[in-house]
């Protein structure tokens, strides 16, 4: 029997996100909270992770009576509960699967969702319907979505780094899309619908009041930093494509592939991120 490496354990528990998210996701937090208007009493964060956005909202918005988080990972809910403990009953955290969210007894002036939607593909419409039901009449739903360029196989963003890693471990580059298919792994760049597709999916549920865009540039100081970013962000989503004995080498190869890109072009990746401001139809 092989013993799991530290990075494999990290990937199973999605640990180390507070550190890893500094590279990309945490920038959405202030960007989104800067768009909040009025004096909201209730804010709901969908896919609330380790509670970073809720914490910032509670600190920035004195009008907030209740900050609600919905999240699938029990490890993340536990970390969020610890982080938000000092806010007492201003916080409610709910285990939830956002591909089939259950109704909850809240109505919010603000609903947020950052860096989550691609994980809900192809069932995003369910979370849009849920948000429409739980939003007060003049409420805002602030949503961020990532849009990596994709190739003919639907690969882009993290998929490209994973393809490099699989090739470094001996796979034939042309065969990698078939490896994904056999392993039941949908490329992330396929999971992230383009803006037109999202506009279409939103239309029956919510109106688009406006949007902003930024370029999310990821840079690293060494291969290990990216190895841990990958494990904390993507968990074991991709690593299950290789045999258990090869997984430590897989995570290392992802880190090395990222580091090569960093040295060649001054960054690992960059992609447009859209902040949608949505309201009732
Ligand atoms: C990249 S993290 C983003 C976390 C946080 N919103 C942020 O911006 O830092 C994606 C989060 O979505 C959660 N998630 C993924 N699929 C989910 C689902 N079906 N239901 C609920 N949460 C989900 C993950 O557990 C993870 O915490």
From TrEMBL:
This is Class I SAM-dependent methyltransferase. Keywords: Methyltransferase, Transferase. Gene3D superfamilies: Vaccinia Virus protein VP39 (3.40.50.150). GO terms for molecular function: methyltransferase activity. One of its GO terms (biological process) is methylation. The keyword Transferase applies. It comes from the Bacteria. InterPro entries: Methyltransf_12 (IPR013217), SAM-dependent_MTases_sf (IPR029063). Residues 44-141 form the Methyltransferase type domain. The keyword Methyltransferase applies.
């Amino acid at each position: 029997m092989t013993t799991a490496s530290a990075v494999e354990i990290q990937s199973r528990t999605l640990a180390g996100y507070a550190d890893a998210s500094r590279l990309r996701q945490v920038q959405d937090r202030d960007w989104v909270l800067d768009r909040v208007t009025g004096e909201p009493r209730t804010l709901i964060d969908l896919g609330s992770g380790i509670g970073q956005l809720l914490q910032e909202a509670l600190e920035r918005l004195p009008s907030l009576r209740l900050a609600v988080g919905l999240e699938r990972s029990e490890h993340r809910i536990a970390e969020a509960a610890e982080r938000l403990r000092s806010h007492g009953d201003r916080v409610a955290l709910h285990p939830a699967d956002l591909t089939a969210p259950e109704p909850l007894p809240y109505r919010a002036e603000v609903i947020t969702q950052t860096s989550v939607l691609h994980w809900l593909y192809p069932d995003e419409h369910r979370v849009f319907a849920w948000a429409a039901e739980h939003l007060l009449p003049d409420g805002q739903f602030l949503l961020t979505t990532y849009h990596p360029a994709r190739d003919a196989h639907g690969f882009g963003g993290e998929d490209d780094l994973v393809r490099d890693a699989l090739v470094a471990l001996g796979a034939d580059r042309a065969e990698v899309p078939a490896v994904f298919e056999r392993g039941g792994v949908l490329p992330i760049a396929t999971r992230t619908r383009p803006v037109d597709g999202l506009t279409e999916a939103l239309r029956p549920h919510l109106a688009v009041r406006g949007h902003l865009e930024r370029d999310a540039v990821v840079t690293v100081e060494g291969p290990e930093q990216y190895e841990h970013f990958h494990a904390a962000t993507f968990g074991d989503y991709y690593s299950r494509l290789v045999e258990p004995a090869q997984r430590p080498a897989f995570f290392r190869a992802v880190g090395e592939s990222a580091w090569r890109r960093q040295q060649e072009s001054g960054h690992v990746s960059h992609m447009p991120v859209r902040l949608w401001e949505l309201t009732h139809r």
